[in-house]
Design brief:
Length: about 375
């Protein structure tokens, strides 16, 4: 099946334009106007990784053309509004560093500076962490670490003063307030005001362990570690990374190596082995082992998960085209106007499960690049 994966990626690219990418199902179904968003950012990140590992210029060329549609000559960004203070909007900015290095266009650096301005002004919790969005006051979500902190670290290392202490503190806060010592898992969200309807009144935590949220966090730590030199910061993040990976590894499905949508409730009615979060965990495991931060056994465990996803969810349609299924389309917490998103078990299993959405495809492609690295050794 491996040999079919690159043709699958090419099919998605051939059928996509910057305003209507096949992998952004939310945008297509809702008919939203083209705008800068984290879903496209995940896919372009994966394509740049594929370009690096395969040497295929078509991937980086596609990424350049795609991003050029959204970034104006002055560094302005189509559909982006700093006033939303949405950490998701920072994520796509991480590709700008690579494109600036490869193509040298000053507009990429200007766009980086615009996104950095948002982080400078981003509202913070009493603990010093970024609000996830303006519409989610006082809230920290695990995925926000991936959305903002990978970009933040790269900025500090490449354009800033080199200090990542702010990022370190925000990661420490996640470990301190969101990690369950008994189950060794991280909760999806934390409301520091303890007032939102989905939050526990004593802890401020959401009710369950959502797979993709934990996946985002592990990918964030793996990617950040990849940008750090040996030293105390790398060691500290590495320790948190190992703890989280050791914790979630206990919940792997023995047969496929995949993980459940609600992580600690495998086999419960309605629960299912989910592609996006499983891909994220597998990628983090393989990359962490390659970087020497995780035990070498995680290279094989990540590979097993990737193979399990291929076997279970890569399918052929009547036209002989490959599709990747088992992807939770979206899940979140609140706001007050959407009380269906209450963090309950019933909520997480009620969200649509789709094929070919970039929240699953992108980490799957990232996994594939890690497998390619193994095969090239």
């Amino acid at each position: 099946m491996y040999e079919k994966i690159e043709s699958y990626i090419e099919r998605l690219l051939e059928g996509s334009t910057p305003d209507k990418p096949l992998w952004n199902i939310e945008k297509i179904h809702l008919g939203k106007p083209p705008a800068w968003n984290y879903i496209d950012g995940c896919m372009i990140t994966a394509l740049l990784s594929a370009a690096e590992i395969t040497g295929e210029k078509k991937y980086s060329d596609f990424a350049e053309n795609f991003i050029d549609y959204y970034v104006g000559a002055d560094g302005s960004i189509r559909g982006y509004s700093i006033e939303k203070f949405n950490l998701d909007d920072i994520n796509e900015g991480r590709v700008l560093f690579d494109l600036y290095r490869t193509f040298g266009k000053e507009k990429y650096k200007s766009a980086v500076m615009l996104l950095r301005e948002q982080l400078e002004k981003q509202p913070r919790t009493v603990t010093g962490s970024f609000w996830h969005k303006k519409i989610y006051p006082h809230q920290v979500w695990l995925d926000g670490i991936y959305m903002a902190q990978v970009f933040y670290v790269r900025f500090q290392k490449e354009f800033g003063n080199g200090s990542i202490e702010d990022t370190m503190n925000q990661i420490r806060n996640v470990r301190k307030y969101m990690f369950d010592e008994d189950k060794k898992l991280l909760y999806h969200g934390l409301d520091c005001s303890k007032s939102i309807f989905w939050a526990d009144r004593e802890t401020g935590l959401s009710a369950n362990f959502w797979l993709r949220a934990i996946g985002w966090f592990t990918v964030a730590l793996a990617d950040i570690i990849g940008y750090l030199e040996n030293g105390e910061e790398r060691d500290e993040i590495g320790g948190i990374f190992r703890e989280v990976i050791d914790g979630i590894a206990q919940y792997a499905d023995p047969e496929t190596g995949m993980y459940w949508q609600v992580v600690d409730q495998g086999g419960r009615e309605g629960n299912y082995l989910e592609t996006s979060g499983s891909s994220m965990i597998a990628y983090a495991m393989m990359k962490g082992a390659r970087l020497g931060v995780l035990d070498g056994k995680y290279s094989a465990l990540g590979r097993k998960t990737f193979d399990g996803i291929c076997e279970k969810y890569l399918t052929f349609n009547e036209n002989g085209e490959i599709n990747l299924g088992g992807i939770c389309l979206v899940a979140g917490l609140g706001p007050e106007t959407d009380r269906r998103r209450d963090g309950s078990y019933e909520y997480y299993i009620s969200e649509p499960v789709v094929e070919n959405d970039a929240k699953g495809v992108a980490p799957f492609v990232m996994c594939y690049t890690e497998v390619k690295r193994m095969l090239m050794q």
